[in-house]
Records
---
Amino acid sequence: MNIYVDTFVNTVKGSLNWTWKSICFDVPWYTNYFWGLFVISLIVWVLEIVFPWRKKQSIFRKDFWLDAFYMFFNFFVFSIVISGFYTIIELLFSEIGIGIQSLSLINLEALSVWFQLLIFFIILDFVQWFTHVLLHKFPLLWEFHKIHHSVKEMGFAAHLRYHWMENILYKPLKTIGVMLLGGFEPEQAFIVHFFAITIGHLNHSNIKITWGPLKYILNNPVMHLYHHAYTIPKDRFGVNFGISLSLWDYIFLTNYIPESEGEITLGFEGDEKVPSSFLSQLTFGFRKEKEKNKTA
């Protein structure tokens, strides 16, 4: 038992130490996700201010500070805490003979760096797209995903407003994706991660971007806005599930962009039951419907 406790504690300490070093600029700039997230957020926010799509939306839109807090909570605080549990799971798998390379289908090391990054990006994005579909399709998972869809005014920080339970689902599936790729991330994977953060911020921003002909490949704010629309076609449980790529939605016919004016109501039926405070949202999804009604 001690080995599991020690593994958990050491991993959490390591994650906490790395985050602190990032804050203090004591890590290579290309792996400094703390300040990288801050800089990307600041740039996209300035673009929102200079080129607003929805002119009447305030610079400090509804829930601006709540979403800003969510960004750093989900990206760092929760990741530090949960890192120990994932390491224990890896240890348990290794003890029964399942290693990180057990499911390997592609030997990325045999490819050039740019092919490694491209394949890594495509596989992980598809895994995230598929996971996103599951969050909408299954009622149990949708209860947690409601937090993300409770956004009533879109802005860059809404990108990382999501229930911590989503990490519990996303991380193992992303890990499986990495295992399919030989069990490791390319050395230059930071390029993919920073690109994904930027695209995610832009998709939730108050900026009108379509990418022109590339809209069939890259997700964009116009397309993603309709993912958050209060009203969607009655025969669907959701639309436009793309994370960085819109490609999957066009392939699997989950795309839906009726117009591009941007003045639509966001949310979902019953979104008034989602509590407004961060602490109350932490337990949302676990409580019985009666308890949720009391909170509203």
Note: The chain is about 55% helix and 0% strand.
---
Amino acid sequence: MTRGIGWYVHHQGAGHLQRARAVAGALPRPCTILGTLAGFDTAGLDVVDLPDDRPLGAAAFDGRDGEAERPQALHYAPLNHPGIRARMARIAAWAERTDPALLVVDVSVEVALLARLLSVPTLVVRLAGTRTDRPHLDAFRSATRLLAPFPAALDGSSVPDWVRAKTLYAGFLGAPAQGLTEGSRDIVVVFGRGGTGGSLADLAAAARAVPDRPWHVLGPVSGSGETPDNLHLHGWVPDVEARVAQAALLVGGGGDGVVALAAAQAKRFLCLPEERAYGEQTEKAEALARLGAAIVHPGWPPASAWPGLIRDGLALDPAVIGALHDPDAVRGCAAAIEALVWHL
């Protein structure tokens, strides 16, 4: 009987589940998705739903436990949390029952180290940014290989050589390409699920600063007030890719989802990286700027800066960012995972 693999997804949003689903569909062996999956579309997937391990009663979760003392190899190990106890027990029971050939860990230092203790080989997902703290490096050492869900050209300059050598650079996973649309004058602004969303006052000021172009905003926007005629707020939409295809210029943060979308559609891109742990967005944005793949401005620009930023963004060669998209990334990642399993 063919041994299957597991793909662990943590509380990072739909993007992690999206890439797990994409790669699982291309694998020649069974794949089980493990995670806290309530609220996500898991139709057609083999899943192990895990108890929630986030802080009890907490409104937000940054992956740390706030404990004064904990083992230095861990980020999150609070005491007396029944969800964590049940979660880890369920992962261990699944591993004992199924004898997996590999566990992809996307992402959790603690699950990576648990898998090592369970004698299960791991492929640990390495996100962008400077992750040279003790827990991350111990998780990387524990892994058989590392998986970067972005192109090597976007990796940070401070990543240790041994980490790079251990990394499979899979490229952007799960971002479909669209046909190019010529002649549009639209500015499309995308706010993803991982950020705080947009401010109506800021958006209105930007639209007034560039009044000769339609502005279309996708994602959450807070605040109230007068909206200029050229500003259109669409909220959450099911056809983000199709709407981005209409853009003359894409505006968004430095998260993997938006950057992958810009690359897949070869869209001129104004990148506004947000503050994230480990410099995840800022380091990626700096790489985009070095390559000439995007115009970068840290955070939301003042109204006076918008005319120049739009002008510079429209002057970009979209082929540069388009070259970061690999249409075979999902199949290539699945093939690399299969090859890794065969060599274990």
Note: The chain has a mean pLDDT of 93.
---
Amino acid sequence: MNTESALTTPILAWYDANARDLPWRAPDATPWGVLVSEIMLQQTPVSRVLPVWEAWTTRWPTPAALAAEPSGEAVRAWGRLGYPRRALRLHEAARAITERHGGDVPSSHADLLALPGIGAYTAAAVASFAFRQRHAVLDTNVRRVLARLLSGAEYPPKSQTKAEVELAESLLPLDPPTAARWAVAVMELGALVCTARSPRCVDCPVIDRCTWQLSGRPAYDGPPRRGQTYAGTDRQCRGRLLAVLRDAEHPVEKPALDVVWSDAVQRERALDTLIADGLVDPLEDGRYALPG
């Protein structure tokens, strides 16, 4: 058995038996639905994304439907998913798809990469999952699986390396639809079994081929891995301020924002960054609103 089939065959079989039933993986999922899911899932767990994705794709089933609305409505519908600039990026991408591609999400990897706010990972993911093409799709889960399986390291390097990309590309099955299934299968293995903190190695379909496992699961010895904090941060303050505007039917007065955060210096700094990011519009009459 060659290296490719020694890994792909058991992992694909595991995926067929264990994959989560997610709407953006359904046979009738549209490329737009896949694109929306990929943007929403960045740094956000599936459980939080599901209800927002359902509401979003019901309200805006096509890029043109979203492009026809003000960007502030995208921010409002984003709710509490976090990192709300992603909502603006999706709105910009919807406009570009409508203007450049007649409202259809492009299938070309190059055209996807040329859309505003779409990086290398998202372009590869959409080309693979929506159009069954052959691309290396390297998210955090995939990088961790490959680090343990082939490099024997508990965690991958902090920043993606050229060697990681080349390794991922070398493992891709030659058949594009199979390569696309492989990409999502490895991702799912990382999400459900080969997790960051408590990997369930006993459930791994390739435990007997895992370099990390065969080496005695050596502890990570790289730079310190610091978890993200949230409480008390500018990010939390920004979220509180945006929540006021999302819940308001009309522009709000400044005191309505001041009351949600006691540290005035931090609050003003957070508000300034929201304005700079295009997430809040300061109106001439002194009130504040989501972008129109």
Note: The longest strand covers residues 281-282.
